[in-house]
Amino acid sequence: MKMKNLMLTCAALAMGAASAGTALAQETFTLRFNHVLGASEPFHQGFLDWAKRVEERTDGGLKMEVFHSAQLGVEEDIIEQIRQGANIGQNTDAARLGNYVPGIAIINGPYFVSSMEEAFALADLPTIQKWQDELASDHGLKVVCFDWVQGFRNFYTNKPIRTPEDLSGQRIRTPPAPIWQESIRALGAEPVAMAFGDVYPGLQQRAIDGAELVYPNITAGNLHEVLDHANETKHILLTNFQVVSSDWFNKLPEDYQTALVEECRTAGQETSRVIAEATEKAKQEVQEAGMQIIEDVDMDAFRAAGDAAYEKLGLTEAVQQVRSEMKQQ
């Protein structure tokens, strides 16, 4: 009898251990990823590809749910939730991250980089890595990667723009972050903070005279209906950052962390090249719709004017440091 009880006890313990092991093996993590772009935008498909690869690589241990059109909330609110440790991710930019670590904003500054390849290479620079570490340790924001290049921003107006002087008196919509505001001001226009969804009615009601955006934004928002000129100033190469909570990230198994980062970079670079092709298509579409493309822009004058934004924000030294590191690569 005693032997039978002992056998039953051992069997129960074995079953409990097996059950615990199974529960541990089946532990999963979920990342709810938010972005403001529409479901038809290349970035959305890119995020879905990233999610699929991460889930496959972790055998379902790390799942990403992608929400388009700001379904989880506006960007600034989401970033604050991330800082509090929520299992949420957000597609954002260096301009907004500059609110926490000012130096990193230069990545979205005027004429900072001139190609996708330069943007991709930034991640390996010591100063950029230091700023990312500071975002994670001091502000709870882990940069997963920033290999998502959305293309050059131009001025879209109802008059031709060839020099900074041509922007004098023009109220140009731009996001509210300091680097955006000062960049547009330095380039000659009056910046107006406004949500993208308000640009079309804002132009109709003449609350603004134009906007600075990328070509696919024009077709996506049908802005060619209320704007006549696409002025190719190419003043900012829009580079997007994917951020998550550093606390949440640090709780992931190491191989899950690696998968999330590496697949972010791969999907981002692939999507950036897709967007480069989409940009050319969008440019052709707006031209066929009647927009006049102004290509004979005085780029030297605009580059010189853009330096004033860095000076105004006290970022000139940061720009010089990072550019020095770029030359040493």
From TrEMBL:
Keyword annotations: Signal
GO process annotations (BP): transmembrane transport
One GO location term (cellular component): outer membrane-bounded periplasmic space
Domain of life: Bacteria
InterPro entries: DctP_fam, TRAP_DctP, TRAP_DctP_sf
Signal peptide: 1-25
PANTHER family cross-referenced by the UniProt entry: C4-DICARBOXYLATE-BINDING PROTEIN, PTHR33376
Name of the protein in question: TRAP dicarboxylate transporter subunit DctP
Organism encoding this protein: Nitratireductor basaltis
